[in-house]
Design a protein that fits this description.
heterodimer; A: alpha/beta; Methyltransferase, Methionine Synthase (B12-binding Domains), Chain A, domain 1; Rossmann fold; 56% helix; B: alpha/beta; TIM Barrel; 5-stranded parallel beta sheet; 4-stranded mixed beta sheet; 17 helices; globular; binds CO-5-methoxybenzimidazolylcobamide
């Protein structure tokens, strides 16, 4: 098996030590880091995502693969930066103001990170202004918001409105999710997308970056 | 004999409690509330204020368990006793705080409105096997800051039964308490006759938020009963084994008991919860899973072992419609709960992981509750010995349909479900339109709502409640309340 295929294969099986060793090997063999990322790691994660969607594997399998991905990314990141290869994209994510539900948000954050994106997790109870200032500071490509209460959903609209005021709207993508949120609501407030679960959130964020794919 | 279902031996219960106590004392807990932290510190707990972390002591846990009452009584708006939550007494209450409702006419899942809430409250007033109301869903046509208090207001206005409820913010508690004071007339009367139960949730793992811990303290100050809703998710936010999740549930719930009892020794509390299995295939928290229901019954045994009244979210389903899954999950939960003697059984009407209330399902569940309440009464001899005389009568008369023994015991011995349960023979069923349970549920809702009788509360009290609610709504720029236009 070719080295990058081996990386993909072992990543699919969640073997983080093996993936780390193979990635090191690939770097030493001077395989371009962009190729290791796309043809090894992301290729493996895409298969994992597909299998998860089809119920061939379950959440813990995805998290194990994500852990392997994150380990390899730590090694690749400095090289990618040196070569000027853009990282897959940066996402700031949080549960909105007055909402303490963070289980779903945490899961979504882990899965997006596992797919190779950089994730800045702002935690829960995050005020609208904080989403905007963090997105600016971090030069983020995506703002992700989670709300589980009917009463906290309006914060999402506030963030969209602030993004408009600050000239970010249209440049930065906004994705929303959580039990009371719906596709219609996302549309109504002007968010770019709604996701109903972690795997779907990964797909959605990936769809924002067609070039990198 | 009252049948009782048990899952845990006393020895296992003791080990679970002992480990939970160790967790509270050795690992401690995060509590994001300065007032609560300083109260715990005053009672000898060691507090790291910077990290908002507290280490409990064996002494405060013991003290709290000593002052916690072993029974909680509830009274309806008219002051009549409806509940004695103690021992193996069981009562049902609708699942609470849904995000959506399943529209009984269109079959659409949608955000609820005030009109839906009023219909719900009227319906619950007519359901014999549902002992209390819950604030079952959130009307979406009022400002979100009053959506918790407004549903309590509507409940108190339209239905006499006591209410299982909860606040979403620290502020909202005030008007929710004032509405109750308006009904009872004074703080002492409210203490004497509790009208509501507030659900207060610790955050798994091992944390209390500012809002929910403050709600708990505020309830204790006014002797308003609290049920703790600890929610370990097995294998995700809690150990995957049921015993491991029970240890976590016990630690979180015991911490709640301490917070309440230190605030106000003797304040009424209920050992509740909503632990759940976590389905790693769908990223969901199935309330209809058998393991969820087993954990509910098991922590109820732990609560009973500690001599505390209990509660659980158990008679509900994750189905999206009133279908066979809805029936089977709800029945299994209700049956286990009644046999386990969970005192306040939450769930009827609820679908979709506690997200969706359905009036159709509620009338069907009312029958499930009726049957399980009958089951819980078990089998007792009633003038059955000696047996010879009744058999002599049977042999003589060829039937016992009008025998004294039958007439005396028929209604007590046999539960006759309402019209949603089909017991007609097939010819009659066809002649009556081959109706499905959904069809029958719809007409039953209409029939019961038609029989609605307004609350007996005096006009003065209703006016005072309306004044309070209007003032609260005005704070958020609402000049009129939607129910006034119905
Ligand atoms: C950025 O892009 C994206 C993309 C996708 C995104 C996304 C963001 N965010 C989510 N997704 C999506 O992907 C995720 C992964 O699959 C999914 O996330 P989920 O979060 O949906 O899924 C998780 C993996 C598992 N699901 C969950 O974790 C939520 C389950 C339920 C049962 C739930 C839980 C667990 C809790 N709760 Co709460 N809780 C309920 C929930 C019922 C429900 N049906 O949702 C709900 C939401 N809670 C409710 C309530 C009332 C409350 N809760 C409260 C507290 C809690 C616990 C602390 C006990 C616990 C949360 C622990 C924690 N650390 O998060 C209180 C609120 C505290 C606060 N201010 O936030 C309190 C107010 C109760 C009280 N009186 O104290 C109800 C909401 C009522 C309403 N109409 O708004 C509720 C529907 C249950 C009910 N019927 O009572 C998708 O939605």
């Amino acid at each position: 098996m070719e080295l990058l295929e081996q990386i993909s294969f072992n990543l699919q099986n969640g073997l983080d030590d093996v993936v780390a060793a193979l990635t090191k090997d690939a770097i030493e063999k001077r395989i371009p880091p962009g190729e290791i990322l796309s043809d090894g790691l992301i290729a493996g994660m895409s298969i994992v995502g597909e299998k998860f969607k089809n119920h061939d594997i379950f959440l813990p399998d995805v998290l194990l693969a994500a852990r392997a991905m994150n380990g390899a990314m730590e090694m690749l990141k400095p090289l990618l930066i040196k070569e000027g290869i853009p990282i897959r994209g940066k996402v700031v994510i949080g549960s909105v103001k007055d909402d303490l539900h963070d289980i779903g948000k945490n899961l979504v954050a882990i899965l997006i990170k596992g797919a190779g994106f950089e994730v800045i997790d702002l935690g829960n109870d995050v005020p609208a202004e904080k989403f905007i200032s963090a997105a600016k500071e971090e030069n983020a490509h995506v703002i992700g918001m989670s709300a589980l209460l009917t009463t906290t959903m309006p914060v999402m609209k506030k963030v969209v409105d602030l993004a408009k005021d600050e000239g970010l709207y249209g440049k930065i993508r906004i994705i929303v999710g959580g039990a009371p949120v719906s596709k219609e609501y996302a549309l109504e407030i002007g968010a770019d997308a709604y996701s109903y679960d972690g795997a779907n959130a990964v797909e959605t964020v990936e769809s924002f970056f067609p070039v990198n794919n | 004999m009252r049948p009782v279902f048990r899952l845990l031996s006393d020895e296992l219960i003791e080990r679970i409690i002992s480990q939970a106590r160790d967790i509270l004392c050795d690992l401690g807990m995060e509590i994001h509330n300065d007032g609560v932290l300083s109260m715990l510190s005053d009672h000898g707990a060691s507090v790291d204020s910077e990290k908002m972390h507290v280490y409990f002591t064996a002494d405060i846990i013991d003290k709290a368990l000593e002052t916690a009452p072993d029974s909680v009584k509830l009274f309806d708006v008219m002051g009549r006793q409806t509940h004695d939550l103690t021992d193996h007494n069981v009562y049902f209450t609708p699942g609470s705080a849904a995000i959506n409702i399943l529209d009984p006419l269109s079959g659409e899942i949608r955000k609820p409105l005030t009109a839906d809430y009023v219909e719900y409250a009227k319906l619950v007033s007519r359901l014999d096997n549902i002992a209390s109301q819950s604030t079952a869903f959130i009307p979406s046509d009022v400002h979100e800051k009053i959506s918790d208090s407004y549903r309590l207001f509507l409940s108190l206005l339209y239905c006499e039964k006591p209410v299982v409820t909860g606040a979403f913010t620290i502020d909202a508690f005030n008007v929710m308490k004032d509405l109750q004071l308006a009904v009872r007339g004074s703080a002492d009367a409210l203490k004497e006759k509790p009208l509501t139960i507030f659900s207060c949730c610790p955050t798994a793992p091992l944390k209390w938020s500012d809002v929910t811990s403050q709600n708990l303290v505020d309830c204790a100050k006014h002797f308003i009963p609290v049920e703790y809703i600890s929610m370990p998710l097995s294998g995700f936010m809690a150990p995957v084994t049921l015993v491991g999740s029970l240890v976590q549930h016990t630690a979180e719930t015991l911490s709640g008991v301490v917070l309440s009892q230190l605030t106000q020794p003797g304040t009424p509390i209920i050992y509740g919860g909503s632990p759940a299995a976590f389905d790693i295939r769908f990223e969901t928290t199935p309330m209809g899973a058998v393991e969820t229901q087993m954990m509910d019954c098991a922590y109820n045994e732990i609560g009973k072992y500690l001599n505390l009244p209990t509660q659980a979210y158990i008679a509900l389903s994750d189905a999206k419609k009133l279908d066979a899954q809805a029936g089977l999950e709800t029945s299994m939960g209700a049956t286990l709960a009644a046999l386990a003697g969970i005192n306040n059984i939450s769930g009827p009407g609820m679908l979709d992981f506690e997200s969706c209330q359905s009036l159709e399902k509620l009338v069907v569940d009312n029958e499930i509750c009726g049957m399980t309440l009958r089951l819980a009464r078990g089998i007792e001899p009633k003038e059955d010995f000696p047996a010879i005389p009744i058999f002599e009568e049977l042999l003589r008369e060829k039937h016992l349909l009008i025998a004294n023994h039958t007439r005396k015991h028929l209604r007590d011995e046999h539960y006759f479900p309402g019209r949603v349960i089909d017991r007609a023979n097939s010819s009659r069923w066809e002649e009556e339109g081959s109706l499905t349970i959904g069809d029958r549920a719809k007409s039953e809702i209409a029939r019961l709502q038609g029989e609605y009788e307004p609350s007996g509360l005096s006009g003065d009290i209703l006016a005072e409640m309306t004044r309070l609610m209007r003032a609260e709504a005005a704070r958020f720029g609402m000049a009129r309340l939607p129910h006034e236009d119905l």
